[in-house]
Design goal:
five-stranded mixed sheet; Ubiquitin-like (UB roll); alpha+beta; 18% helix; two-stranded antiparallel sheet
Length: 93
């Protein structure tokens, strides 16, 4: 199933593109594929933790406008035609 991915801010530079389309069944699979296809994203999206791996602090991944942290995280299921937006940590004050 085709999933559209949109990169924002610094992740556009790291990915070398503003968007991509690929196949994945879950957000974690999508992230793995993105890291494999776009070297600049390696170590930018995920971190290893005691219970396993998770999104790096501050990284926001949204599926159709809903933050995956409030869904099933990396286990969030994807459907044909979904749009995934990936935002880097935001700083400021």
């Amino acid at each position: 199933m085709q999933i559209k991915v949109k990169f924002f801010s610094g992740f556009r530079d790291k990915a070398g593109t503003a968007s991509a389309e690929l196949e994945a069944e879950k957000v974690g699979d999508l992230i793995d594929r993105l890291v494999k296809d776009h070297e600049g994203l390696e170590n930018a999206l995920l971190e290893e933790t005691d219970p396993g791996r998770e999104l790096k602090s501050g990284v926001t991944v949204m599926v159709n406008g809903r933050n995956v942290r409030f869904l099933d995280g990396l286990d969030t299921e994807l459907s044909e035609g979904d749009t995934v937006a990936i935002f880097p940590p935001v700083g400021g004050g």
